[in-house]
Amino acid sequence: MKKIFNILLLAGTLFTSISCTKLDEKVYSTITPDKLSGKDLVYQLAPIYGQYRWLLEYQSLWDMSEQSTDAWVTPTNADGGWYDGGKWQRLHQHTWTAYDPHMESIWNALYYGVSTCNRVIYQIQSNGGLTADDEKIVSEIKVARAYYYYQLCSLYGNVPIVDKFDQPENYLPATNTRAQVLNFIVTDLRANMDNLSDAPNFGRFNKWSAKHLLAKAYQNSQAWIGVDKTDSCLIQCNDIIASGKYSLDASYAHVFSLSNSTSPEVILAFPNDEKNGVPICWPCYIQTRHGLNGPSFNASSPGFNGLRAGPSFVDTYDESDKRRANNFAQGQQYNLSTGAPIMSTDGSTPLIYTKNISSFTSAGEFDGYRFSKYEIKIGQKTETDQDWVAFRYGETLMMKAECLLRKGDYQGAAEIVNQVRARSFDASVPDAVKIITAAQLSANAVVDGVSVPDGVFLNELGREFAGEMLRREQLLRWGLFNKGTWSFFIPTNDDNLNIYPIPQTQLQANNKLVQNPGY
Amino acid sequence: MRQIYISAIMLCLCLNFCPPVHANALILHAGHATAPITITGQVTGPDGQPLPGVSVSETGTKNATSTSAQGYYIIKVDNPNAILRFSFVGMKPQDIAVAGRQTIDIQFESSSVELQEVTVSIGYGSIRKEEVTSSVARVGSDDFVKGLVTSPLDLLRGKIAGLAISHTSGNPANQNVDIMLRGVSTLAASASPLIVIDGITGGSLNAVNPDNIESITVLKDGSAAAIYGTQGTNGVIIITTKTPTAGKATVTYNGYASIDKIRNPLKILTAADVRRYKQDPAFSTINDYGSSTDWLKEITGTPVSQVHDLSVSGGNRNTSYVGDVSLRQQNGVINETSKRSLITTFRVNHAMFDDKLKLNFNISNNVVTDHQVPVETYANALLRSPTLSVYNDDGSYRELNNTGINPVGLVNEAKGSNEYNQLMMNGKIAIRPVKSLELSAMGAYQNDYNIYNYSTTFRSYAATLGGRNGEAYLNGGRGENKNLELQANYSKTFSKHIINAMLGYSYQDYTKEAWGMSANNFPLDIFGAWNIGSANSIKQGLAQLSSNKFSWKLIAFFGRINYNFDDKYLVMASLRREGSSKFGVNNKWGYFPAVSAGWRISNESFMKDVSFINDLKLRAGFGITGTAPTDAYLSLTTYRFDPSIAMYDNGQWVSALVPSSNPNPNLKWERKREINVGLDFTLFNKVFNGSIDVYHRRTNDLLYTYSVPVPPNIYNSIFANVGSISNKGIEFAGSVQLINKDKFSWSVLGNVSYNQNKVISLSGDVYKRDYLNVGETGEPIQTYTHRIESGQALGNFYAWEVSGLKPVGNQWQVVGAGDDSPGEQQKKIVGNGMPKVFSGLTTNLRYGNLDMTVALRGTFGFDILNQYRMQRETLSWIQTYNLPQSAFDKPFGGNDYNTAPPIYSNYYIEKGNFVKLDNVAIGYSFTIKNQPYLKRARIYLSGQNLATITGYKGMDPEVAVSGVTPGVDVLKNYPNVTTYLVGLNLNF
């Protein structure tokens, strides 16, 4: 027995001397926080801006801002395409629920942006004393965060405000009212915008894009929380105009072209790149074009034939309005390289987009005009090269015009409207068509089957900013979002539907959240 | 030599046929002798060859010797009634009464010890079957599935109660076996059992030649598997490969050839069908492109696969070896799909210093090349209009937008190939300083290299429609697995007490490196993947490069005691303390205890008179096991560079540095505790053998990826331990030896298991959920398939219930939705994809030289989501695509064709119950006489997956059922097949 004990003792000694009991994780390609330093700040900033592009990916902010309106619709195709469990139908007919995937995907995308902003601010601040440059960067990030909150406020209304990264353990953010959220946006923008550079910057916030965002917040204040901020909006618009940093582009098409980084009109863009952009501008091509349309652009992937223009919305354009041809792909499609008309696969039918949509649940494959505002590159890859225009000077001007309308200055508004409109008509077009008069602006007009004050201006907003993620807000400002009739939408007259529901998954994950009324 | 050989055989025959009366007479006669007797003789193996080194001893004495190189022995005994014991490694020991004889020649009958004493591996050691106190099942090579298998685990299909193995694809390159032990015990961690190959924990199945496996043992319950700690929950599969047999070198050849045929092909429209329907005004818009093509026929064939296996084994008492070379060429039914592997194995065992020191070296290597077609090939063959031609007039592939991809083009112009090399080697040294103690150390090293290359030509779809003149991918990887196992075994017998104790230490270290590159647009169509540098996309900045590396470690200390009192009362207790680098800093280490006990009732004196019971044992066990997360670093905050959210700043693109996980310092293993009660019995003169097990397993701290609010979190999900799940069940396995005569034997083996699963909770203190939606219906429906809900069983299909088609509007009428577009609120449980009952039945018949095995397998109590029907059984696609013939069925006996957009509903949920004729094998063993070289010859025929009885409408009701989304018959990328095989065994 003693012998055995000795042997075991020897073995045990041998064993403990060679054995290893350390369990640290050794990382190679994985990045852990201890590997980060101040030198990577520029990389840390990147997702704040890069995330904006994800708002235009599949199940986009674009869908939520445009497809629930008179301007656009995704019917179910006769081949069953774009049924997708009915989510596109529900989006258009305002029968969405908290379970619909759009609600969650955009909530996540926006709050991801908020979180990134808070985190990077914290990282900069925890590096020690802030330099002047650091202060500027923090201000810029706060402005960038305000854009995320602007969209959250616009879509969901009552959302939690989280303004810093370091929170107590197990902290869960609670719902704030829409008024609190809007106030937070305005306060943050006012406090920080003057710290930003005033030089134009295509892809990053500067002082002027911050002011533009502030003007937008004021513009929608009445519709969102019932507080009129027309005067405040006007001040911001006038500041931007007075700066002389931006001007209207001579060509409407150029603003949305592949070379729009040279346009004097663009205040802020979300740049895409076929090399760096895994996300794509989904509505710009793939969501809307028919599969046969790919060869027009020698594109490497076919379109999915979903998104169509609302026929009544198309009808608001005069035939002579160049924006009509720019914003909608219509009629016979051609191979842009050879000029040959595009035919169906068996050669029997030409690819002709017709304006009307025959059915909401079984649409013809060529039914409906398509969104074609953004130039499509010849040889386009699945990843697209379009730079999305988030803010442009034309919008600043039209915001000012809207303020003037609200203040009863129809003449002043008409001047701006015609200034913006002029480039979209040939000189030969008669003034009666080309020019919108103060008298026309002051009269009631029928929009979506409802006679409304300033209806002519609302139609002009629709035409000028078609597909720029503004239509829902426009209809809400005019009270038509639940009262108009268009495409396959009949009025719900339900004001609860003016904001979207808080996604069900978020309610599940955070019991401090309160669902919006009526859901 | 030949004479000796023949006379040995003659002697053996003589002995075998000696009439009993004669033998008795000898014994009586011998009773009178008193003087010491010298006995001589020769010992031969089952093959008739002399066996050197056989131990020959007189029982009850210390009198012993061993055989010479020629198998001869001389032993003197005092007692003419002495009993001589002949024992040899790997052979059934033989006790022979001397009975006064002076010459006793012995031939060992079987190379297997099974008949007498089955030892069962229990992990870090083995014990006699009678001593097992937990739920352990062993399958020897004789009972394996007979045929060509893609994975060694396929050998066990239908053979072990509670172990469900499904074969869901006929792809020769696909080795992933759908395997589930006693229900699903995890949500997000791996459901794969731990594989132990010849003592190497985490051994690679790739390195094992399926034809070279001696036995497979499965540790099923917690009390058995707890010795493997965090790797034990899904069971432990212990693979023992064939060991060297000492003696004159023997050479074995085993070869077989097989063909595959698609089983039960899906019924889709032919060109003639399309034209017939086009006559109907309702379908006049169907595109008729003018040709008639059977796409399935265009891409498939009846390939011949072949396997050749040659091994040599031999040695003497001290040193023995086995070497084996196996070439396996498996060709799939889809053209250009195949797998070729060359497995070489070499093993040496050596014992010295009176067996005080034993050395063992083992090396095996598998070189594999497989060829694959793009995954979408088969689906496109089902989808593409039969009126389209394969080629255009100019010989190019006919490719059109919106008609799917030409499958022939995919097969011929898109080549994927995976080459890998799996090396596994280990060495073991065992020292026995005193008889009762053995110390051993084992080191194992595994290394796998793999290179995957994929390329398309200028004639491919990617070029003609996608504008990419040639695409190429080249991905490589290297994995390195190192084990060190130290063990001390102590065994001692004190009168009626037998104690076996074991202490051990285990260290495992895994590192994986991977890299990849891809580019397209080549100047010439000649390189495939082998000149990526020439691609034009590199100059355009559109090529991609990547690399990554990770590692993890596992360390454990463990011990076990087996105590046996008088072969009546048995106790086993074990404890493992284990840590893994994968766990959070607060939970690096855990304890995994187990205890089990057995009572051999049949050995009690009161059972003496119960003659019909040969053996009866009641056992019960309790054990705790774990499941570790699959990936490393899950407990850490991590960041990554994400080009997809790059920023454009002053004309430059800046990559984004973003969080990729939330920290979870509390991350730990899933903790499963299990109670198992079982009864083993052998009845009616060993005719009937069986065991019943009842278990209850509960897994707590389930790992799942919970979505969390951002902010305050930096990432939108966290991998956390939340929730619990339970599985209860009963298993029965039994065998009946109906007839057991020399000429004729017939046995039946069967097993059946029933499991009931319940999700207890999905909430913890921090993360709370009532339910989780999982699974994916795929395009174009895009919703989840299953809902995991507390209080419910796993595997519930959660969908809309439809009552028919709406009279107008081209939509389904969803129950509860009225005229509205149906929403989430109308969804309900419409079925469950987790089978309740698994069963297997095998019958073995032998008549003379002819033997036959028939194996049936049945699975019951589950539903299947028929994804193919769901996605294609709608006439809304008829204009451009091919559809199943059933698309023309009018749903629910209504008057309307289904042209509504596909939705996920109960209409596509079908009963899955099936019984399969899984395996039939017929063999004939030749009687070899007067052959100097050939010792044994056998030919056999076998068929796999021959017939199925089921009400299921799809191709095959055998679908993947493990995991949290069971029962989905996915729109496959490879059809199921029936395999027919002919084989030949030769022994020299």
TrEMBL record, chain A:
<feature type="domain" description="SusD-like N-terminal">
    <location>
        <begin position="62"/>
        <end position="218"/>
    </location>
</feature>
<comment type="similarity">
    <text>Belongs to the SusD family.</text>
</comment>
<dbReference type="Pfam" id="PF14322">
    <property type="entry name" value="SusD-like_3"/>
</dbReference>
<protein>
    <submittedName>
        <fullName>RagB/SusD family nutrient uptake outer membrane protein</fullName>
    </submittedName>
</protein>
<feature type="domain" description="RagB/SusD">
    <location>
        <begin position="312"/>
        <end position="519"/>
    </location>
</feature>
<keyword id="KW-0998">Cell outer membrane</keyword>
<dbReference type="Pfam" id="PF07980">
    <property type="entry name" value="SusD_RagB"/>
</dbReference>
<dbReference type="InterPro" id="IPR033985">
    <property type="entry name" value="SusD-like_N"/>
</dbReference>
<keyword id="KW-0732">Signal</keyword>
<keyword id="KW-0472">Membrane</keyword>
<dbReference type="InterPro" id="IPR012944">
    <property type="entry name" value="SusD_RagB_dom"/>
</dbReference>
<dbReference type="GO" id="GO:0009279">
    <property type="term" value="C:cell outer membrane"/>
</dbReference>
<dbReference type="InterPro" id="IPR011990">
    <property type="entry name" value="TPR-like_helical_dom_sf"/>
</dbReference>
TrEMBL record, chain B:
<keyword id="KW-0472">Membrane</keyword>
<feature type="domain" description="TonB-dependent receptor plug">
    <location>
        <begin position="129"/>
        <end position="236"/>
    </location>
</feature>
<dbReference type="GO" id="GO:0009279">
    <property type="term" value="C:cell outer membrane"/>
</dbReference>
<keyword id="KW-0798">TonB box</keyword>
<dbReference type="InterPro" id="IPR023997">
    <property type="entry name" value="TonB-dep_OMP_SusC/RagA_CS"/>
</dbReference>
<protein>
    <submittedName>
        <fullName>SusC/RagA family TonB-linked outer membrane protein</fullName>
    </submittedName>
</protein>
<keyword id="KW-0998">Cell outer membrane</keyword>
<dbReference type="Pfam" id="PF07715">
    <property type="entry name" value="Plug"/>
</dbReference>
<keyword id="KW-0732">Signal</keyword>
<dbReference type="Pfam" id="PF00593">
    <property type="entry name" value="TonB_dep_Rec_b-barrel"/>
</dbReference>
<dbReference type="InterPro" id="IPR036942">
    <property type="entry name" value="Beta-barrel_TonB_sf"/>
</dbReference>
<keyword id="KW-0812">Transmembrane</keyword>
<dbReference type="InterPro" id="IPR037066">
    <property type="entry name" value="Plug_dom_sf"/>
</dbReference>
<dbReference type="InterPro" id="IPR039426">
    <property type="entry name" value="TonB-dep_rcpt-like"/>
</dbReference>
<keyword id="KW-1134">Transmembrane beta strand</keyword>
<dbReference type="InterPro" id="IPR012910">
    <property type="entry name" value="Plug_dom"/>
</dbReference>
<comment type="similarity">
    <text>Belongs to the TonB-dependent receptor family.</text>
</comment>
<dbReference type="InterPro" id="IPR000531">
    <property type="entry name" value="Beta-barrel_TonB"/>
</dbReference>
<dbReference type="Pfam" id="PF13715">
    <property type="entry name" value="CarbopepD_reg_2"/>
</dbReference>
<feature type="domain" description="TonB-dependent receptor-like beta-barrel">
    <location>
        <begin position="376"/>
        <end position="838"/>
    </location>
</feature>
<keyword id="KW-0813">Transport</keyword>
<feature type="signal peptide">
    <location>
        <begin position="1"/>
        <end position="23"/>
    </location>
</feature>
